[in-house]
Amino acid sequence: MQLHISESLAHKSWYRPDIDGLRAIAVVSVVLFHYGAPIRGGFTGVDIFFVISGFLITQTLVAEIAAGTFSIVGFYDRRIRRILPALLVMLAATLAAGTLLLTPGDYASLGTTAAMATFGASNIFFLAHTGYFDRTSDLLPLLHTWSLAVEEQFYLVWPLLLYLLSRWGSRVFMARVLAALVIIVCAASIAYFRVDPKAAFFLAPPRAWELGIGALLVFLPALNRAAGETAALIGLTLIAIGFTISPTKFPGEFALYPCVGAGLIVWPRSGKATSSEMLGLLAPIGLISYSLYLWHWPIWVLYRIYINGASPGATEATCLAIISLIVATLSYRYVETPFRRRRRKPVRTIAAGIAAMLTMFVAGLSISAANGLPQRFPAEAQPLRDLATMWDWPCQETTVDGVGPYCVFGAAWDTAKHKSMIWGDSHAQHIAPIIEAVARDRDRSFLVFAGCSAVLGDGNSIISIGVPNYPQRCGRLHALAMKLLADTAIDQVVLTSSWLELPRRIGNDDEARGASAMRDALIKLVGEISAPGRQVVLIGGEPELPLQVVECAHAEIAGLWRAPCESELGSADARTILQRSAVVDDIIAGIAQTHANVATAFPARNLCNDQGCDIRLDGEFLYRDPSHIRRNLKPQTRRDFADKIGLTAALSRPR
């Protein structure tokens, strides 16, 4: 991201302290947002940076094109000297810290993201690897580099496109073309946000209009003093409104607030405005804004990892902010500035830059290829070395009636005398190995139908951030499940889900209304899928652990460098789990009382009491993450787990 000082201090007449002041507002808002301050739209500072970057880069390019001195080699010489040194130092330091703090899986992921960030492609990685089963995004040390990648991808195209456009028409022509492009791309981005909000956030094309606004300003006439004063005040107001926007509504049309606001402030003017002079007072922070952006996030995330995923308190956050400012100042003084001032032949700078990038790229990929260096940890920690390993469980994928593939275990589905269908969301996937461990009927086949809770898609819906058209997807899956259940050989249906959040989410934060809707849907579903000789097994609420308990347990087993922590569940957490699960468990128990073919298992009730919860069994820590049981538990542990929660008895109850 173009967070540093204006494109060249060699152009003294171009330097505007108010733009560095705007940079200060942008970077401070991002830091405050990330560090837990009550500024829910602080992330819009990134969009402000995009506008500033588009303006400053285009201003320099237009001047060079007009003077006949434009050179693509010269352009990338400047980009390398300004962007690369501080970035590579931050990446190297983060990789070094990762050897002490991160599990092999997380360290391998860090290596991959460092390699991709080096070449401006980390946004593509995060688009693909910030899903439900991946490490929670707020614990990814290099997540913030997505915006650097967006900008660098834009500048792979923009200099040459600008050069070509400049040869076809006048400045007025350029302004009209750019205005049309900005409007078209902005409208397309807003429409795309409704289809795939996650891709609209991470990818460069939907963000290009934001940099385009800054570029357009270069071709517009300068504002006089009065107009400039008014534009700056309106711009600051729009930016302030942007700071109130919820992240769930962004980017979309709400990105117009920070982008138009920043554009009004950046718009060239013929005279100084008071508001611009006031912004100029913040220029010293703006000068270090690039380094501050680079360092604030890994410092925050690595500290959170050190305290096992907990959220730092106000005092800790303040100390981390001070540390970030100090490190950013040192980075600006001793890394950014020397490389900006150094003048070598552009070809030599580019060659040296590519060599440095390749070195970091190879280092990152080597860590990834080595699976995060698992040899750092003892043998007993290897089964917990990464999320993928803890989710590993072999299951044959089979197509059924031309649809699928589905995970099928036990007897072959097509020829099995008895069939069971395990229907649910990701909890269907983690309960499947438990069921396999206690399955005794060799003529029975089990099909795992996972994707959405069974109570969704038939009148109830929830929004899942990052999953486009999730309600429609659940509707299709529900219809498909009902079609599969037309097979009369299916004499057992196991229903499980991540129940605890559903009442609140179905009821749009009205838990009582959501619980009532869920009860009605479950009663209706049990009635629809019941058939002569068919048993329905309802698995109740499962304990969801605090993240820091899971992180602490994994770190203790691995011997990682972490703060002293508690890897057991205390009485307060256990009581909270029992209270939350009681809503769903009472619904399930009530259905079982009125339906003779319904058997039940209650994990939370059987694992927890007022003193705590059993989160270890047979010497194994049970949890992969806060809400999922490990699928690579030993067979005996899985059998004992099924016995303990009452699942073995429920599955074997006579039909």
Number of helices: 26
How many individual β-strands? 13
Helix content range of the residues, please?
Answer: 55-70%
User: What is the residue-averaged pLDDT?
Assistant: 90
The major sheet is characterized as: 7 strands, mixed
C-alpha Rg (nearest Å):
28 Å
Which structural class should the secondary elements be placed in?
A: alpha/beta
Strand order of the largest sheet: 1-2-4-3-5-6-7
Euclidean distance between termini CA atoms: 63 Å
Q: How much strand?
A: 5-15%
Oligomer classification: single chain
Per the principal axes of the C-alpha atoms, what is the gross shape? elongated
Low-confidence runs (pLDDT<50, min 5 residues)?
1-12
Your description of this structure?
The chain is α/β, with parallel strands linked by helices and 655 residues long. It is 58% helix and 8% strand. The protein is built from 26 helices and 13 strands. The chain has helices at 17-34, 45-67, 72-101, 104-118, 122-128, 145-166, 171-195, 197-202, 208-217, 225-242, 256-266, 274-280, 283-287, 289-306, 314-341, 346-369, 387-390, 426-438, 470-484, 502-506, 511-529, 547-558, 571-594, 603-607, 635-645, 647-652; strands at residues 396-400, 403-410, 418-424, 444-450, 490-495, 535-539, 598-601, 608-609, 612-613, 616-617, 620-621, 623-625, 628-629. It has a 7-stranded mixed beta sheet, sandwiched between helices. A two-stranded antiparallel sheet has the order 8-9. Strand 12 (623-625) and strand 13 form a beta hairpin. Helix 3 (72-101) packs antiparallel against helix 15 (314-341) and helix 18 packs across helix 25. The protein starts with 16 loop residues before the first helix and ends with a helix. The relative contact order is 0.10.
